[in-house]
User: Which sequence fits this backbone?
């Protein structure tokens, strides 16, 4: 009796997907992001950006009478290369997804690269920009956010324009930091710059005292042959640690400082002595410049409506990446090789929240504008003082 | 090596060494008295740092209040971990190995609670609001108010703890508990009370160390966790049992991370990325070559172990 | 002082202690003898609260301690020494002797930081410990680690540690095992002195009957968990059953 009822239930259950798939054609869009670790809050916000794009697309598909629906399946990269590879593998094996939005950073992207290439899975990374990720012909597309090959040129142009002979570099020892610093050294030399020195530090250091002492020594020796500046390629937290030490260094306060995008943070200026130090150092930073398209405002509005709070920084890139991924699937079918083939075309004809998604031979964003930032008169925030056009290598400073 | 590098790196060795010593003492204390290699110690440290941050932002900028409340918060978190988790767990007669995993879990939970809270209240990337002042500037030698807070406070705490353990009846009972818990129980020592006090002390030193470490760097949910490796290296140099060895070990690790690393970088071009590996190297070398750490050397020169 | 009634304790099927009854009077020194495995250590464990009996009762100083915990029994003034010395091996001889002292001000977290509050008491305790160590001939070794002592010295320290809690009765398990014959006799002389001067009662398990019989007021003979005989040393020596099982005559 019991047994028969059980069999009946099992039969119904096993048939139900058949009915469901008869009515609807579900396509899984994978999402891999860091949900834990230092970048965890980025990851959580990015997933919402993807979910919003999927919800909007599904509504339109239904209205148009299409049977196709997108569903998302996400996994945590834990912010590490290994975790990223595992996350991609998990999503692919448990849901059969062929196209994945993510991961976040260049080291995570490179961690998942081998698995993606070998299994024909396409990764659409919305914010990775390390030059190391710029590889032609692979399954990785880095849409919307330009690679740091361009920003390295921007730093070199600023350094040369400001008349720095030499640059002492402090950078994060990861694909992003090393890639940017490597490219900077090349571009700086090509633009006629003098000597550079490099200090790399492991991500998340307990403290940076040795590194900063060495930086000061580097500045001392470089200064002998001409005007010297410091270039910092750091996460914000590390920059805080570095600046606390630099504040009391007899030499580091006497030279100019250049910072990366992460250092364009008003939090850095909350401490009055740090703010004064940076103003005195003519502190300049470079950040991706985003002209907001009309879509950006609609995105922000729908996001706030859906989730009750405004989107965090860069979340719009996740939204754009999801749209490009879904449009490519709709155009060529849910198949890795087909999507890989058509994605550059679709992306190049998609205008997102900030920019047209034109891709270069590496599958990376080809249009690159950067804002140049300096500290405002009140010393409590950054303001844009100029623009750098990466594709044309032209620097325009206001006034 | 240029004198500037030598002098700054020596100053840093002393600062960082004092802080490592303060953190490592707590680890050695729990290791000896509770017999637990406590990895959650890192989060007791982080809790102290966050308390210092919140107090300095919203309550008071007086260093005494900031450090005092940070100390208290560390003590309370440690005591509640003991009462809510470690004690019920150890009643199940788990092996040291399992207890170590339990301490990992406690640390992990605390760490992510701190992540969630600092996300919610926007406490990421903030500094404890005690403005930096330079008090001594003699050519290469720069000493700040932070230096003059960190070093004396840490050293005073380390000495106080050593005296408490070595000279008072309470310390004697703690050491007795470490040496032979069954006998201590039979002799009618108030074992539970001594355990709770040990956790309070451990947590207090951790909380204070966290606030000082936060002053020296900045506050982040990973603060304690990132420092735990060199701190464990220091404790292992102390053979996980000797307080004098632990203190010496703390300064030795800090010296290797700062002055030695600086020299290696200067003379051989070894990059600073190697710095993160130094505690690992020390731990491995000690465990391979001299598992008792520095204890043997130290005891002869009449120490706190008695 | 100590009344034991119908005490029984089994391990599995084995009755290690089987219906034992006897008294130890105030200020009496009682010897507990019997062949190996006759249940002596088990009996001491039952009295000290480290084991609980299956049936029977134990009263100490008028109080029922049958089910009390070892620390409660210790607090009542019934201390014990061990066959294998139980010491704080990583600590000094002096620390081992100081630890059991009662009501130490310096053990309270409120008093510990103020040296002046407990200095007097600590000095007093140290002086007492000093006398004790002197008597046990351990004085010169006061700052040695307990683990560095010889076997005999450890036994002495075990006794010293038990005494420093100022008990009114002491249970000793083979206090002279591993101790040189001369020192063994001295230990019993100390016991006699303490018995006389401090009115301390003793229950002593001992194999060296020649020495034991010179110092005890009564002897209990255990055999296979049962009391085979009890009485004055002279009577015990004459007892035929005892001679059979114990002296193998
Ligand atoms: N914990 C125990 N578990 C099982 N048997 C025990 C235990 N302790 C003692 N015994 C047994 O009880 C008997 C009495 O042992 P014990 O009291 O040590 O004798 P004694 O001290 O007179 O030599 C022995 O047969 C011994 O094997
Ligand atoms: Mg025995």
Assistant:
């Amino acid at each position: 009796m019991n047994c028969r009822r059980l069999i009946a239930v099992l039969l119904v259950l096993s048939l139900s997907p058949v009915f469901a798939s008869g009515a609807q054609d579900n396509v899984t869009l994978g999402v891999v992001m860091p949900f834990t670790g230092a970048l965890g809050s980025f990851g959580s916000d990015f997933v919402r950006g993807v979910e919003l794009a999927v919800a909007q697309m599904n509504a339109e598909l239904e209205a148009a009478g299409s049977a196709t629906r997108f569903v998302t399946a996400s996994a945590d990269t834990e912010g590490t290369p290994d975790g990223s590879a595992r996350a991609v593998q998990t999503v692919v094996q448990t849901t059969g997804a062929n196209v994945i939005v993510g991961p976040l950073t260049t080291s995570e992207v490179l961690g998942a690269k081998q698995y993606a290439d070998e299994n024909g899975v396409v990764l659409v990374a919305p914010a990775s920009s390390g030059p190391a990720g710029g590889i032609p012909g692979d399954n990785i597309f880095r849409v919307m956010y330009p690679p740091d090959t361009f920003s390295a040129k921007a730093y070199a142009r600023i350094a040369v324009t400001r008349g720095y002979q030499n640059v002492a570099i402090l950078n994060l020892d990861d694909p992003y930091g090393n890639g940017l610093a490597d490219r900077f050294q090349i571009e700086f030399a090509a633009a006629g710059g003098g000597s550079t020195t490099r200090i790399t530090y492991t991500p998340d250091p307990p403290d940076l005292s040795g590194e900063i002492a060495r930086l000061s020594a580097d500045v001392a020796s470089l200064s002998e042959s001409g005007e010297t500046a410091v270039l910092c390629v750091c996460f914000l937290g590390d920059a805080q640690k570095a600046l606390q030490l630099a504040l009391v260094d007899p030499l580091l306060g006497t030279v100019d400082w250049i910072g990366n995008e992460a250092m364009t943070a008003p939090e850095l200026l909350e401490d009055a002595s740090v703010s004064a130090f940076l103003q005195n150092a003519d502190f300049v930073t470079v950040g991706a410049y985003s002209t907001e398209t009309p879509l950006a405002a609609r995105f922000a509005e729908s996001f706030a409506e859906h989730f009750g709070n405004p989107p965090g920084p860069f979340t719009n890139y996740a939204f754009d990446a999801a749209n490009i991924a879904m449009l490519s699937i709709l155009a060529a079918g849910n198949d890795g090789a087909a999507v890989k083939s058509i994605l550059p075309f679709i992306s190049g004809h998609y205008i997102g929240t900030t920019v047209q998604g034109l891709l270069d031979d590496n599958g990376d964003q080809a249009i690159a504008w950067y804002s140049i930032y300096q500290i405002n008169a009140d010393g409590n925030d950054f303001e844009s003082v100029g623009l750098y056009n990466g594709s044309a290598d032209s620097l325009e400073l206001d006034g | 090596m240029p004198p500037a590098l030598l002098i700054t790196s020596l100053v840093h060795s002393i600062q960082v060494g004092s802080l490592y010593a303060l953190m490592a003492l707590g680890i050695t204390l729990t290791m000896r008295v509770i017999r637990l290699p406590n990895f959650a110690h890192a989060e007791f440290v982080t809790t102290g740092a966050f308390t210092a941050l919140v107090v300095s932002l919203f309550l008071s900028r007086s260093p005494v209040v900031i450090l005092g409340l940070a100390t208290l918060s560390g003590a309370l978190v440690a005591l509640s971990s003991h009462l809510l988790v470690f004690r019920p767990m150890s009643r199940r007669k788990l092996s040291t190995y399992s207890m170590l995993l339990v301490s990992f879990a406690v640390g992990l939970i605390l760490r992510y609670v701190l992540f969630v809270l600092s996300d919610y209240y926007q406490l990421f990337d903030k500094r404890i609001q005690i403005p930096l002042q330079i008090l001594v500037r003699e050519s290469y030698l720069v000493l700040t108010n932070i230096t003059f807070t960190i070093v004396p406070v840490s050293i005073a705490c380390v000495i106080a703890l050593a005296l408490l353990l070595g000279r008072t009846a309470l310390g004697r009972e703690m050491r007795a508990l470490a040496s032979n818990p069954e006998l201590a129980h039979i002799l009618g020592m108030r074992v539970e009370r001594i355990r709770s006090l040990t956790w309070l002390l451990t947590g207090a030193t951790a909380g204070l160390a966290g606030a000082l470490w936060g002053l020296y760097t900045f506050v982040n949910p990973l603060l304690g966790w990132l420092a735990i490796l060199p701190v464990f290296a220091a404790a292992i140099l102390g053979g996980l049992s000797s307080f004098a060895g632990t203190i010496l070990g703390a300064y030795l690790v800090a010296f290797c991370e700062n002055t030695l690393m600086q020299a290696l970088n200067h003379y051989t071009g070894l990059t600073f990325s190697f710095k993160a590996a130094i505690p690992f190297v020390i731990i491995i070398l000690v465990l391979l070559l001299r598992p008792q750490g520095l204890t043997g050397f130290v005891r002869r020169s009449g120490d706190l172990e008695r | 002082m100590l009344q034991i009634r119908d005490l029984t304790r089994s391990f599995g099927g084995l009755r290690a202690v089987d219906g034992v009854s006897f008294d130890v009077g105030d200020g009496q020194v009682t010897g507990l003898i019997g062949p190996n495995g006759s249940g002596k250590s088990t009996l001491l464990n039952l009295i000290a609260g480290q084991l609980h009996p299956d049936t029977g009762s134990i009263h100490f100083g008028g109080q029922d301690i049958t089910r009390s915990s070892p620390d409660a029994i210790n607090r009542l003034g019934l201390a014990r020494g061990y066959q294998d010395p139980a010491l704080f091996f990583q600590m000094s001889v002096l620390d081992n002797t100081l630890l059991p002292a009662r009501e130490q001000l310096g053990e309270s977290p409120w008093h510990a930081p103020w040296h002046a509050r407990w200095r007097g008491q600590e000095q007093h305790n140290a002086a007492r410990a000093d006398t004790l160590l002197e008597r046990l001939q351990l004085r010169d070794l006061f700052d040695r680690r307990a683990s560095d002592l010889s076997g005999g010295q450890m036994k002495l320290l075990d006794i010293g540690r038990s005494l420093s809690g100022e008990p009114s009765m002491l249970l000793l398990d083979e206090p002279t095992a591993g101790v040189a014959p001369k020192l063994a006799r001295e230990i019993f002389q100390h016991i006699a002195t303490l018995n006389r001067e401090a009115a301390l009662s003793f229950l002593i398990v001992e194999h060296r009957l020649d020495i034991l019989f010179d110092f005890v007021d009564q002897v209990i003979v255990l055999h296979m968990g049962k009391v085979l005989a009890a009485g004055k040393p002279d009577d015990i020596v004459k007892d035929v059953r005892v001679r059979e099982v114990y002296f193998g005559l």
Notes: The pocket of adenosine-5'-diphosphate (ligand 1) is lined by residues C 11, 14, 16, 34, 36-42 (CB under 6 Å). Chain C touches chain B at residues 48, 50, 70-72, 74-75, 86-92, 95, 98-101, 104-109, 112-113, 115, 118, 122, 143, 165 (CB under 8 Å).
